[in-house]
Amino acid sequence: xxxxxxxxxxxPEDMWEKIDNKEKESDLISRPSLTYFxxxxxxxRRNIMSMIGLVIIIILILTAIFGPFxxxxxxxDQSLKMAxxxxxxxxxxxxxxxxxxxxxxxxxYSSTSNGEIINLLNPxxxxxxxxxxxxxxxxxxxxxxxxxxxxxxLNENGNEYPFYKKVWNKNHLLGTxxxxxxxxxxxxxxxxxxxxxxxxxxxxxFFIGVLYGGISGYAGGRVDNIMMRIVDIISxxxxxxxxxxxxxxxxxxxxxxxxxxxxVFWVRMARIVRGQILSLKEQEFVMAARTIGATxxxxxxxxxxxNAMGPIIVSMTMMxxxxxxxxxxxxxxxxxxxxxxxxxxxxxxxxxxxxxxYPYQLFLPSLAICITMLAFNFLGxxxxxxxxxxxxx
Amino acid sequence: MGRFLIxxxxxxxxxxxxxxxxxxxxxxxxxxxxxxxEKKLPVAVEEALNExxxxxxxxxxQYIDYVLDVARFDLxxxxxxxxxxxNKLIGDGFPTSAKLGILSxxxxxxxxxxxxIISALKQNKWPDYTVMFLATLGVTIPNFVIATTLxxxxxxxxxxxxxxxxxxxxxxxxxxxxxxxxxxSFISRLTRSSMxxxxxxxxxxxVRAKGIPEYKVIFKHALRNAILPVVTYVGPLIAxxxxxxxxxxxxxxxxxxxRHFVQSITNRDYTTIxxxxxxxxxxxxxxxLLVDLVYGIxxxxxxxxx
Lengths: 393, 306
What we know:
Chain A is α+β, with helices and mostly antiparallel strands. Chain A contains 14 helices and 9 strands. Chain B is flat and about 85 Å long.
């Protein structure tokens, strides 16, 4: 012993060398300790589709919150002159400064060459017998001949004005609706309403479902039996019908939709929570909590529910697209938010009447619904895999 | 079997009575009577109307009368259309809706299940990717969007199918497609995942090792088990097609029950709303019972009496 000590001291300082960390830790076989959610996040990050979904959802939420601040229009600003202008305009050239756009319904707009609509032109002469309308722009006469399709734009000598090109609508990027309201800002506002309804309704469902399922699973025995029979009965009833009935009773509005959606779709959540609690409550940590005198409420809220969070989160993520869809469905059958508020469903519903002439008014909000549903579905699928403790590596 | 049937039948009756009660309470919770219109009726006229429809009776009497009427399959008169009964509205609309619904269920099962099987057998090859891509789209696109897109492409642009109403068999094609889009996609996804799970099990390997031909392995051994989750989905499938018919019938202007229902909502025709809700609920509850029975037959491991 003393011998080695002497030896160590006698080694000159500069012969000592630090080993690098790799060698030092080569014996350690443990992995870095991660909490359940860190681990889930690590796995979720590797799933490309869910990450795309997550990014889309974040962009959507940010746009819904901040988008309206960057728009010069308000969602309820009407301008009947500018009604139903599409996002793409086909311009005809009058001269170098003046271009016109011929809209559906025999309306002619003056425009700049890059697609900024200036004004709706008023005809100076109309002749419905010959089927012509005469306009004047910048001293030049424009004759619209609508006797035969395709309609012709002629100058005073009877020559056709040349087709210039297709340009984007610069005033209204996504066009306007039938009352001349900017469609882009209405879709962004629609995102606010639709997402708000979806999130709040899901939250309400979450609370009811967790409370109901938690109590049922934790109490067990007869209470559980009765509570689950009630759930069985509710689940055989077509719930969509009762959402519709509730909406009829409550009168359309933002709050009623949230109440109707929130009070009806909690059954699945209750079943999931009950199943989780039933298996968790037999575990040792519950007994440990009980021995140190924790109350039932505390055990349920602080010990059991956090451990059941994985499946609950997955089912919440899946509930959001369902809520968006249900809201759109309700709006579509005329039970949505009242005008001038607009959700995506009401936008689709309003556009239904004129979709043959103005398909973009229907397809743009529909596209918004589809993208959102896809994003939430991808995220939900990824979360289901990520939060499954069986897959933990 | 007998005891199971009786028990299920009793719980079905309880459910239907609860449905009637809930519907009744909701409809009577609406502020103002059904004749409170924007244009005020003369008091005497309103009184006479209330008297005629027994709206002056105490609630409990109205409720008992209504339950007894429903038990005799009489859903009462419509408040909006003079001389029209709810029974007649349902009778008019039901055949069209039923045709549409049956065709959609058939299409869903006859195409969804094979698609699911194909994509499970060709897992991670192009047929799988194609089917799953379409199925993901089908699950996420709302049916009214599918319906209007179909009309726009096939009826307006290509004009191969009629846009609305029922004239011949071609008029059914687009509505049925729109109506079954969601369920079709859902069933293919369900069949695929349950088929994959079954194909990975040991007994399939054993069957293959015995040299049984592949088609027998799939249809006789694998599919029998893989089909079970699909059977449980048939109940919700019918519910989805039923609610889907509200919008599809409206968009295609088909004279079905769904359209009557949406119209009665717009007109606030309370007795019709009540009647059709109860009819739909009872219909679905009976369908779910039937599906349960079929499940017992398909899966011999489940004993209905226990």
